[in-house]
Specification:
Elements (H helix, E strand, L loop, with lengths): L7 H28 L7 H8 L3 H11 L3 H7 L5 H28 L4 H24 L18
Helix pairs in contact: 1-3, 1-6, 5-6
Length: 153
């Protein structure tokens, strides 16, 4: 099997990570800001004490993606079931880190389960996309054509 490099994949990966780390936390920040339930106390004080800042979400998402550095190295092992196991592991660990640190804010949201499910789903989609686009080599079963000839002597 001949290996072929493609430098464009590096820019695709960087663009995907950059967009993911900016757009998903921004959407989560907006969702938390507008769905947080107040318990009747001072609304501004409650909002500030429970809702994470946009910058803290950017940082948290960036750090949560650090699991993909060793996983990207492990994805080079071309064993399909092992690659999928790494997808599940990376998405779960990365999502669990986010949910653990955001749990106080998530619990105050009216859409707690939807937000938790969205965090895990987006991480699973990111991990699946990376594995399939950058590391997965499809099986190449070459059909062998057998032709027989008869020779009359």
């Amino acid at each position: 099997v001949h290996w072929r490099y493609d430098f464009h994949l590096v820019s695709y990966a960087a663009t995907a990570i950059f967009c993911y780390v900016w757009l998903v936390p921004l959407a989560l920040w907006a969702a938390l800001k507008w769905t947080t339930q107040t318990d009747g106390h001072d609304e501004i004080e409650t909002q500030q004490s429970t809702s994470p800042t946009m910058m803290s979400l950017f940082c948290l998402y960036g750090y949560s993606l650090s699991i993909y550095i060793p996983v990207a190295i492990l994805w080079t092992i071309q064993v399909s079931w092992l690659q999928w196991l790494f997808v599940l592991m990376a998405a779960f660990v990365s999502g669990a880190v986010l949910i653990f640190w955001l749990l106080p804010a998530l619990r105050k949201s009216k859409y707690f389960l939807i937000l938790v499910g969205s965090i895990l789903a987006f991480h699973f989609l990111l991990a699946t996309g990376f594995m399939l686009y950058f590391f997965h080599v499809p099986d190449t079963d070459v059909a062998v054509k057998v032709s027989t000839t008869t020779v009359k002597v």
